[in-house]
Amino acid sequence: MLPKEPVAGRAEPPTGRIPLILLKRAPEDARPPDTKERTRLRPGGTRIRCPRCAFEPRPQDRWQCHCLHVWNTFDTGGVCPACGHKWSHTCCPRCHAWSRHEDWYVKDDPGAL
Fold it and tell me: Contact at 8 Å (CB) between 92 and 50?
């Protein structure tokens, strides 16, 4: 049997690592945060939000590793619990921008509210 040749006009699937992607509802369903909503603080007053658009992921949001494991990347600090790969960047489900994972963690100023 001969190997299949690429079909003209169809892009071949990318090789290498699969980007970290969010598996949730469509981005057009995203809405800007309401200023009256309570921010979700983590221990030590740390808040998680996209450094580009201020999207705050929920605990039930999920990302996928190149090994195909699905989990909340912020529960493990960007480390895949299945294969141990440490993601240095995370993609925002709202604005689709890639930012350094550590830039998502923001220490809230107690006097800012």
Answer: yes
